[in-house]
Amino acid sequence: MTTINKAAFIAALISIAAFSTAYPTFAAPIMLKGDINRDDMVSVSDMVVFRSFLLGRYGLNETQTIAADINGDGAVDSTDLSDLQDIILESRNKLPIGTWIGDCAGSKRYFSFGSGTVSIVDPNIGKSQFFTVENEGDLMIFRSGKAEMSAFVTWDSELSFVLRWCNGCTETFRYFCDSKTEITDLLTGRWVTSQGRTFEISGLSGKLTDKSGNVSRFEYAPNGENITFHIGSTDNSISGKKNVNDSMHFTMTWSDSTSEKFTRQEIEVRDGITYVNGILIANKTYALPADYNPGKILSEPQSAFDTMKADAAKDGIYLSIVSGFRSYTYQGQLYSSYVNRDGKAAADTYSARAGHSEHQTGLAMDINNAGSSFNNTKEAKWLAANCVKYGFIIRYPLGKEDITGYQYESWHVRYLGRELAKEVADSGLTLEEFLCIDSKYKT
After folding, report:
1. What sign has the CA pseudo-torsion 147, 149, 155, 159?
2. In order along the chain (443 residues), what is the average pLDDT of each group of 10 residues?
3. Which pLDDT value is given to residue 347?
4. pLDDT, position 19
5. Could you count the other beta carbons within 10 Å of the beta carbon of residue 36?
6. Would 297 be classed as within a structural domain?
7. What CATH number did the domain enclosing 240 receive?
């Protein structure tokens, strides 16, 4: 056994542990063929116990008997001893190639082995690290800089092996794919698709819910643009090519030439406020709480408008904010006045109920004239052509009334930040379509 100095061993524990924070130091014992002394590895010491048993000097309990019956014929004899010797010999000086799934008590990480190297991807913490790796007898030794850690290796078959780390953790490995896996390949998160399916992905595995509500577990193998999803416990798999549309969308073109659009959709409610992929949402479906009150247009959109206004003036265009932030109370009063004047059904097409207005977010504003007379003005045309450069979108575009829930408002802009606003504008979608959400009152 290789001697590891104390300082290097501690450094190794810290280095390796950075990718194993969810791993228990000691996992439950595994059933490994040939592991007769039950120390989670197969070594010469197991042969000593086996020989003693065959000579009648040592008895085996039920668990040891199962481990000793290597060929599975129901008898523990010299044939199994020969098989045990083969296991030990095959586990020496043998390194894996390709990507393997390491599993310790249900926590998984991914080892992409090359020629004397390995990249360890831990999706639990969203990090990866590069190591050199080599064999010394039945030890597999990992090094990163001066840090070093070793593990006893036992090959169970050509497609599986076990590492017993020096810190006591036992990790089982099974072959996954030929290609190298990078942290940037991972599709962690919740994705809804154009076929009505939902993929909830953590690392390289997840849960698939189809449009009928049926749930299947899956693992997937990313190889650049090419992805294979292995669904369920059978050999059922679907493969295709991924085309990235923007930061929240990609399209899979499957091997049968059909396409399926994936939309990232992480919905989180914090303090009563709904965020979809980190974007604050206020529409007919998602309401703001009555006590949410920033008191004014927030500083970032206000600064962006000021810059936009100054640049517009250089083109002979005058822009001003005629309606910015509104409180919950004021929005309720405004909506009620429209209901009294035009009726509830009509008011709902152009005014939001209290809690549902973007004006309450401090991120939206009406420009120049909040009415249809603004639609064909040179100011409206300039705003539509240029607002995205400053981080704004026309929030309620023409022809999208059934999706946004509101009539066309050429004067109403919503701040998203320059990068996101450009993505939404380039997609040709409303914010609801971009995030795959709806805008409908429940009552």
Report:
1. negative
2. 42 42 48 85 87 88 89 91 88 88 85 92 80 91 90 90 89 86 83 96 88 92 84 80 95 96 96 97 97 96 98 97 97 97 97 97 97 95 98 98 97 98 97 97 91
3. 97
4. 39
5. 28
6. yes
7. 2.40.128.280
Residue 251's domain comprises 187-264
Pairing of strands 117-122, 107-113: antiparallel
Going by C-alpha positions, the residue among 389, 396, 378 that lies closest to residue 426 is 389
DSSP state of 72: -
CB atoms within 10 A of CB 142: 22
Evaluate whether 377 touches 384 at the Cβ level (below 8 Å): no
| Contacts by residues 417-422 (CB-CB < 8 Å, ≥ 24 positions apart) | 417/300, 417/391, 418/388, 418/389, 418/390, 418/391, 419/247, 420/247, 420/279, 420/391, 421/387, 421/388, 421/390, 421/391, 421/392, 421/393, 422/388
If one counts every other C-beta atom within 10 angstroms of the C-beta of residue 389, the result is 15
Domain count, the chain: 3
| Same domain membership, residue 169 and residue 43 | yes
Distance CA 388, CA 394 (A): 8
Residue 292 is given by DSSP the state: -
Strand partners, 279: 276
The verdict on residue 391 lying in a domain is yes
Q: Which residues contact 76 (CB under 8 A, 6 or more apart)?
A: 53, 60, 65, 68, 69
Task: Compute the radius of gyration of the chain from its Cα atoms.
Answer: 31
With contact defined as beta carbons under 8 Å apart, do 144 and 130 qualify? yes
Round to whole Å and give the CA distance between 240 and 260.
10
The answer to whether residues 83 and 156 belong to one domain is yes
The residue from 264, 288, 307 where one domain ends is 264
- Residues 127, 34, single domain; the answer is yes
Per this entry, what is the length of the chain?
A: 443
Q: Write down the pLDDT at residue 88.
A: 86
